[in-house]
Amino acid sequence: MTRPDPTQAAAEAARIVDAFLEASMRPDPVAAAAFMTPDVRIVFTGGRVFGHPGEATAFNAKRYRWVKKRILRNDVVPGPDETIVYNLGTLYGEWPDGTPFEGNRYIDRFVVRDGLIVSHEVWNDSAERILDPGLGA
């Protein structure tokens, strides 16, 4: 049995995540969904579970006037059946009242299997900054 090249699998998984994030930030949840399995599990901060990128986009529309990611890097962990991609960076944008923000740390964890994202978990500092706006200063 021939095992897949872990370097190639890692590069492909990172490419899939980057393409997904690019579509998500437009925002174009329909295009983003093309990089995910139909039964994807998306878990946002606070344990909010979504089954489609459109649900996550709708949640973000309530939390932010607009939001984008400054991607710092992908840390990729290839495995025998799936590849884990940690995407790290900061968020910038505007709160619903129009107040700008930047430097809001985030980390996203993706599980990529057979060329599609099967799981996406999201952590960021937004809740802390909403509670204490001075944290971003």
From TrEMBL:
Supply the InterPro entries for this chain.
NTF2-like_dom_sf, SnoaL-like
Q: Which domain of life is it from?
A: Bacteria
Which is an annotated Pfam family here? SnoaL_2
- SUPFAM superfamilies from the entry? NTF2-like (SSF54427)
Q: Which residues form a coiled coil?
A: none
Q: Where is the SnoaL-like domain?
A: 17-120
According to UniProt, the name of this protein is SnoaL-like domain-containing protein
Species of origin? Methylobacterium nodulans (strain LMG 21967 / CNCM I-2342 / ORS 2060)
